Structures are given as structure tokens and as C-alpha cells.
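From the pipeline queue, job 12 of 40. The input is one protein chain; the requested action is below.

Action: predict structure.
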Amino acid sequence: MASTSDIKNGLCIKYNNDIYKIIEFLHVKPGKGPAFVRTKLRSLTNGKVLDNTFSAGHKIEEVRVENHKFQYLYPEGDEFHFMNTETFEQISLNKNILDSPGLLKEGESVMVSINTETDLPLSVDMPASVVLEVTYAEPGIKGNTATNATKSATVETGATVNVPLFINEGDKIKIDTTSGNYMERVKE
């Protein structure tokens, strides 16, 4: 059993007969009354996100997980296929488990959290950012640069990202996987 002081991002816990992963947390100590921890939890079975508040010192049931490096192979409908880079064992996961499936490129390395009790995959942790090539971008309109104007662009995985006006087809861009936002243009 763990307590609220052990809460951190990425921790997997049992709560309400389900397994949740902590996405965000905030320790709050109001001037009056007891301290508490405000959390944002994502269900690892159906992908739903819920907000919950734990009082300070509350006992939480932690789920033991092991992290293994997997390589993304290919999509098939709602299933995404991965291969363990050490044992070459292949698994398929539903896209609900993935944080941003639209940004996964074939051959990308990810960390998969596996429940040690049941040997079932719980979540997929992508790298902090990915570099993808722009396959379609509308031309930027000249004179529209006074403000932080953006346009939508489609990347090689099929995802749509808002980018600055100077990005063209064929450019490689770095995208933040947690928010799905454009970070910078990558020169090669």
C-alpha cells in the first residue's frame, strides 16, 4: 500500500475496481483545513479521464508494473502491433491505451508498462517528442505574419497539426507527443 505522498506522474493504481494511471497531480495545502492531493486519472481499460481528490495520508493500492522497450510495427484497424526489442515477442494493443496514436511512426521505440501480476500491457509511454515529415500543408498567405498565425498541416502518419505559416510540404517538424503541438522545424 502506498500513500498520497508517493503519488507521481505515471504511477498506476487500483481505484474503483479499475486500474488507473496518474496523468497529473497537485499537492494542495490550504491555509485552513487538511492538505489534499488533486489528481487526474486515466483508466487503462477504457481510456476515460477522471478528476479525483485524495485527502492527505489516504492509502492507495499501487499496481506493480515493469517497463519494457517495444518497437511499433504497424496498425490494423483499432489494433496497434508492437514487438519487444529483447525477446522479439509481438503484442497488439487497442488504440485507447495509447496517448497519441496518430503520432506513432512505424519503427518508433516506445516503453510499454506491463502489469507484473497478470502480464497484461497497461499503457504505452511515447518519447517526449517525435520528428515527422509534412505531407500536406496549405500555402501560407503573404502579409499574414503580423500575428502568430497558424495553418493546419498533415504529417506522414496522417495526423493533423497546427503549424506556423512558413512550414511547407516536405519539411520535417518536431511535435510534442503529450499535447500534439508543433515545437520546431528540424533541419537536416
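Job complete. The chain is about 0% helix and 55% strand.
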